[in-house]
Write a structure and sequence with these properties.
Two copies of one chain form a homodimer.
Chain A (H helix, E strand, L loop, with lengths): L2 H15 L4 E8 L3 H19 L2 E9 L4 E3 L9 H7 L6 H11 L4 E5 L10 H6 L3 E3 L4 H4 L2 H13 L4 E2 L11 H9 L4 E7 L2 H11 L4 H10 L8 H4 L2 H13 L10 E2 L13 H7 L4 H13 L3 E9 L2 E9 L12 E8 L7 E6 L3 H13 L9
Parallel strand pairs in A: 1-2, 1-4, 4-5, 5-6, 8-10
Antiparallel strand pairs in A: 2-3, 7-9, 7-11, 9-10, 11-12
Helix pairs in contact in A: 2-15, 9-10
Amino acid sequence: ISGEYGDIAVKVAHLFFFNQAQSIEVFVFGAGAIGGCLLDQIRDQKEELLTQKIDIKVVAIATVSSMMMDEQGLDLTNWRSDLEASTTETNLQGVLDFVQAAKPLNPIFVDCTASDDLPNQYLDIFKAGMHIATPNKRANSLSMDFYKSLRTVANTQHRRFLYETNVGAGLPIIDTLQNLFKSGDSLTGFYGIMSGSLSYIFGRLDEGASFSQAVLEAREKKFTEPDPRDDLGGMDVARKALIIAREAGYELEIEDVIINRVFPEDFDDTGSVDAFIQNLPKLDSYFAEKMAALKKENKVLRMAGFIEDGKCSVGMLEVGPEHPLYPIKDCENAFVFHTARYNPIPLTIRGYGAGAAVTAAGVFGDILRTVSWNLEA
Amino acid sequence: ISGEYGDIAVKVAHLFFFNQAQSIEVFVFGAGAIGGCLLDQIRDQKEELLTQKIDIKVVAIATVSSMMMDEQGLDLTNWRSDLEASTTETNLQGVLDFVQAAKPLNPIFVDCTASDDLPNQYLDIFKAGMHIATPNKRANSLSMDFYKSLRTVANTQHRRFLYETNVGAGLPIIDTLQNLFKSGDSLTGFYGIMSGSLSYIFGRLDEGASFSQAVLEAREKKFTEPDPRDDLGGMDVARKALIIAREAGYELEIEDVIINRVFPEDFDDTGSVDAFIQNLPKLDSYFAEKMAALKKENKVLRMAGFIEDGKCSVGMLEVGPEHPLYPIKDCENAFVFHTARYNPIPLTIRGYGAGAAVTAAGVFGDILRTVSWNLEA
């Protein structure tokens, strides 16, 4: 045993000798709503996890403006003000150099940014020896080539790529799918309400609200983006459906996801946000007629992502009381998986699919998945 | 680096040098419906998992009558006939001695038996250096003292105790709860339909079946035990509710679970199975009246396990259409978790909660949770 393996072996022996906890060294990029909540959760749970022999240390916190790093683990008591006071410029390469030099046992890079650029660095992050956990959907919705590279490099580096919160926030979707498929199950159909705002809007329609009223309410409550077309356009749902389809083995690009337009053909949805908002009432009679017809069949309208007959789509579904999406409203999300084994009754997971606390908890869960005792017994 | 750490370090270096897959050495006790299905799934998925750098080897298969073991991994092509032909007597101590001598990197003991005795050996199995995965509820429903010992010893040995399939078969219940609580969430309420037979029986009541008809149908379809009182008595549900309560931090014994009797007080449920079956129609008017009254309120009757106000119970619940248990019937299971964060809308997971294929897949998932690359980077 010599060279770099020797270093690791010494650490293993040391851990064992002192019967220490398994360490996780966390590097958090992005300290906004989700990242901040995650840091608070880690701070509050650190002691409890130590009793379970898990020693979770936050080694670095970085934002666009500054970063702080401490090999021994940062004191998180006042991390917000400490970070504000830090004059160190954020430097990803510096972090990677540190990891390659210090060789922490179990370093994990947590991308809590909404950056479109950071995912381009994931391959280098794996190569530096870090796991990656992220709620950021970007990496998994880029090209299929990049998608495969991420997995090849992670596997070759023996690092884990964890993204449970890419869909459904803290709901256990990705891990569940991976376990199903690894054991030989296969997806035969999928239906999901994967947007809180669309869950709310279409749920309000069953309750008798007009379409414009439902959209305006959702906007006022800040469930939608400032421009509700960002929600109603279905692109966010399309990305999530793509990620689920790829998980199931479909080799699809985002362009392959069929987005069925919510608005009738003759409705002009272009122009400024204000113009769009002002035009909304023109849609009311269209949706009112639709809802009246559906009511006679005891059905409701749901905007969903779905996978049927090998095709991945986004659009409105008409569902009756026997369908698991029927009761989904009030921002609730739901994921309905039909598989070779979950047949004829599907596997359904429902609950909040957004929110800083549940999303941070999902990322926390991903971080803890890297714990292992394998070699210390 | 010397002695036993040296051995491990050599293996780590070797793995790294050849960029080999992470190995999992599986020791399966019990090759009935679930164990057999698991072995078939492992056989069928072995190649696919190798492409993901996971090398899963079944080192031993044991039943009450015989066992077979091969350090290099058994050829599973004809494992059933090979096992039948084996003249080696099953010997747990022999397996443990082998593990302690050969020191496989990642050995996992899989208890697919229904044995009441084998769980008493779990502490020794951990001490021999093995993880344990099991669908067998026994260990987790014994005394709280034993429950804690299992976890203390597993943690001290740096081994994992995995029992996702103790409740809900392949549905992701235990892992989800553990992730929630480790990140600081807390359970405020739970409602679960955790028995396929009771799901079926009470679902048939909404559809207009009489109670005796519903029970007899469920028995004919082999959804219930030969003696339906084993299902209707609620003890199996009580054990599952106990396991969920303990997961949430409740220090309860099985005797603390309140079982509310399904039958009216004046009904005599003693005597032989035949006598009980013959008496069943006497319950029909009782349930018919109940259902008629509930129908007026648009409610249904569900037999569930539930945790409310710090108490863990089993019994009938009357639920309306807004309740996640309302649509659950036809053997479907459902688990509804109210937590500090999943509030007011709970986290709900529903689907088949029994069956060899989905249960085996859940055990398979547990086995794969032991994979880790931590020290080879």
